[in-house]
Amino acid sequence: MANITKKVSWSSRGDESGGGERTPLLNGSEEVRYTRQVGLLSGEGGMFHIGRLSTVDLEEDMTSDESSQGHHVSMSSIDGVKVCVCVFQSLDYDNSENQLFLEEERRMSFLGFKCLEISRWVICGLIGFLTGLIACCIDIAVENLAGVKYYVVKQNIEKFTEVGGLSISLILWAVLNSAFVMVGAVIVAFFEPGAAGSGIPQIKCYLNGVKIPRVVRLKTLVVKVCGVICSVAGGLAVGKEGPMIHSGAVVAAGVSQGRSTSLKKDFKIFEYFRRDTEKRDFVSAGAAAGVSAAFGAPVGGVLFSLEEGASFWNQMLTWRIFFASMISTFTLNFFLSIYNNKPGDLSSPGLINFGRFESDSVAYNLYEIPLFIVMGAAGGLLGALFNILNYWLTIFRIRYVHRPCLQVMEAMLVAAVTATVSFAMIYFSNDCQPLGPDQSEDYPLQLFCADGEYNSMATAFFNTPERSVRSLFHNPPGSYNPLTLSLFTLTYFFLACWTYGLTVSAGVFIPSLLIGAAWGRLFGILLAAITPNGSVWAVPGKYALMGAAAQLGGIVRMTLSLTVIMVEATGNVTYGLPIMLVLLTAKIVGDYFVEGLYDIHIKLQSVPFLHLEAPATSHWLTAREVMGAPVTCFNRIEKVGTIVDVLSNTSTNHNGFPVIVPVLGKICGLILRSQLIVLLKHKVFVELARSRLTQRKLQLKDFRDAYPRFPPIQSIHVSQDERECMMDLTEFMNPTPYTVPQETSLPRVFKLFRALGLRHLVVVDSENRVVGLVTRKDLARYHLGKHGLEEMQLAQT
Keywords of this protein's UniProt record, alphabetized (predicted)? Predict the structure, then answer.
C-alpha cells in the first residue's frame, strides 16, 4: 500500500486486531478515552486537516473526578494543539439469530406479530405527539421571554432617547442577553455537554450506526430544551429548529423502550423493542417528527430522515415515519391554536412560519432561472467561507476553551457582543421607514426617526430571528435600503459563525436563512435598480427566499429534503424548481472547497462515519489488507476463566468474538461481549446446569432487561472455583454470522457492511478458518483525498 497517503486519525486502544470497540460502563456512559493529537497535511498549503477533533460537547475539563466516574483518560499533544477524543462503538443493527431468538419467533402466533405491528404504529403516534408538545412548549417559552426582554429594552430606549444616556439601554440589553445565555450555557457545560449545538451531527451518526455517548438520554433532552429556550431568548444568532430534531430523536429512543433508565422506571411495555435494530428505526421517526414540528413539513421530515439520517430503510418504515411527522405537526398546530385563543384554527404548522407567498407575487420568468443559479453559486461560496471560518474557530476552542467555566464565559461574551453590535448598528442607522397600518413590526423602534416612522435596521436586529426572516420575505419593496441590508448581512454572518459551536443548545438553520434572506433581498433591490422594468419582476421577497435557500444549502449541503422543506414552509409549490436548482448549485460549488458543516463537525468528533459508498479508487484493496488480525476467538465450549480474562483485558477491549470448532479452527458462530457478560452474570455454566436441574433457563428477556447499559466485566464476581467451570456458547451465539473470503474487494466489503448494518464481518480463508475481522473503524479509515486514496492510521494510545 505504498501509494496510499497516510495520516493520523482514528484513535484506538490496542492494535488492529479483531474489531476493538469500547464497552459501556456500569453508569451507562461510554468508556471515553481522551487523546490530544492533530494530524496535519504535509506541505503544499491546502486546507488544514485535523485527524482527531472534537466539538465542544465532547470537550470536558480533565479532572480527577471524571476518572472516578469511569472515564478512562489519556492525553497526548502534537504541535502544541490539544484535542479531546472519544472512542465510539457501533450499534448492533443486525439481529443475532441464536437459538433463543428462533425459539421466541417460533412461539409467537400470527396475532402476536399483528400486535407488534400495531405497537409500532402506537409508538410512532406517541413520538409525534410528544415531539409536537415539546415544540409547542419551546415556542411559547421563547416568545414570552423574548417578548418581555424586547418590551423592557424598548421602553428603556424610548425613555433615554429623549433625555440622553442611551448607554444605559445598551448595558441593560447586554446584561439581559448575557443573563439568559449564562443560564443556558451553565446547564449545558456543567450538567450535560452532549446537549451542546444542534445535535444533528450526533443524530446523523447514531442513525449511521454509531453509538454516541449520552446522545439519547432523558437528561440530554431536558438540558436541550431549557438550553435552546435560553439561547434564543438571549438574542444569540441561533435558531430553535435544529435542536427539535435532536429532541424528537431522544423522545423516540425513550418512548420505544417503555422505560427510563435515567429515572430507573420500567413500565413493562414495549419490551420486544429493547434492541438496537428497533430502537434505531424509531429514532429515525423521532428525527423526522422533529423536522416536521420545526418547519411544518411532514414530507420534508421523512426525506430528511432518508437523506441525512437512516442508513437502512424499508417501505413500512416510511409510512410509520410519515405518520409520526403528521401527528407532530398536527399536535403543535392544535396546541398553538388553543394558546392563541383560536381553538381549531390550524394555521401555524411549524415553529418557523415563512408566511404564505401569494401566487401573483411568486411568479417567475424563464430568464430569471440563470439568476437563481448565480445566487446558488454565491450561496455555495459564502457557505464554504462560513464552514472554513467555523472550522478554524473550533480548532481555537479546542486549544484554549476546553474548561466549562471558560465555555460559559465565552457564551456570555458572544451574547454581550451580539447585543452591542446590534445596538451600534441600530444607533448609527438612519434608514427610517414610515410606520403604515399594514406594517407587522412587533417591536418598532423610533429612536432618532421622525414621528410616524421606525428604524428599519431595528426590524432585523431587534427581533427574534424567525420574525426577522419573515419580515425580509414579506415586507413591501422599499422597506429596507441597500446599505442597511449590506451591513446586516456582513455583521450577522460573522456573529452566526462565531456563535455556532458555543456550549449552548442552538441550531444553524435560522441564522443561515436570515443571512441568505438579507443578501438575497439586496440582490433583488439591485436588480430592480439596474434593469429596465426591474421593479415589475424583481420582487425583493422572491429573491430573499432564493438567497435564504442558497445560504442554507451552502452551509449544510442538503438538497432533496431541504427543497421539500422550503416548499412546504412557504406553502407554494411554484418555487419547487428554482429552489432545487439553487440548492443543487450551492452544494456543487460548496463541496469543491470544503464539506458541509455537519460533516465537518462529525469529523471534529472523529466518528467512524460510513458514507454511501466506498472510495472510488479502492477496488484494488482486499479484505485481507483492511481487516484486523489476529482475532481473539472462543471455542464452542469454553472455560469460564478464559472468557473472564479476555473480557478483562483492557489492551484488547473487543466487542465481538468468533466461535470456532476446536482443533479444526473453522468458524461456527459469533458471540458479543454484552451476551457473554449476561451469561457470566447469570452463572450459565455447564456444571451448575447439571447439579441444579431446577435452574431457570435463560431467556431473551434477560438480555433485553440488561440493554442498553450492560454492566462492565469488573462488576461481575467470578470465584476461583467458577473459573474452572465450562460455558456452552452454542445456544447463545449467532450461528450464521456474515463472512467474506479474504480476497473480497474493499467496495464489496463496504457495501455488505453498510447495507446490512453490520458491526462485525468475519474474514475467512478457503478452509472456512477465521483469519481476520472487519469492523467499522477498519472501513472508515479509507477516504478519497486530494492526493488520491488516503489511509488514516490507527493511533496507538
Answer: CBS domain, Chloride, Ion transport, Membrane, Repeat, Transmembrane, Transmembrane helix, Transport
Contact 782, 608 (CB under 8 A): no
Confirm if 78 and 34 have CB atoms less than 8 A apart.
no
**Alpha carbon distance 32, 722 (integer Å):** 31
The DSSP secondary-structure symbol of 219 reads H
Given the C-alpha cell 470536558, which residue does it identify? 60
Cβ atoms within 10 Å, residue 515: 32
Q: Whose CA is closest to 53, among 201, 167, 195, 165?
A: 201
Enumerate the β-bridge partners of residue 164.
Answer: none
What is the tens place of the pLDDT at every residue in 515-559?
999 999 999 888 888 877 766 677 888 899 999 999 999 999 888
Region of residue 581 (phi > 0: left; psi between -120 and 50: alpha; otherwise: beta)? alpha
Give the three cell numbers for residue 226: 431549557
Contact 406, 616 (CB under 8 A): no
Where helices occur in 164-213 by DSSP H, the ranges are 166-186, 200-208
With b meaning 16 or more CB within 10 Å and e meaning fewer, what string describes 399-413?
Answer: eebbebebbbebbbe
pLDDT digits (tens, 9 = 90+) for 438-482: 555 566 777 777 777 777 787 778 777 888 888 888 888 878 888
Report the distance separating Cα 36 and Cα 23, nearest Å. Answer: 21
Query: Which residue's entry shows cell 480548532?
Result: 395
Give me the helices (H) in 296-363, please.
Answer: 298-304, 315-339, 359-362
- What DSSP letter does each residue of 523-562 carry, written as one string? HHHHHHHHSTTHHHH--HHHHHHHHHHHHHHHHH---HHH
d(CA 364, CA 535): 13
The stretch 600-623 carries a mean pLDDT of 86
Three-class SS of residue 10? Answer: strand
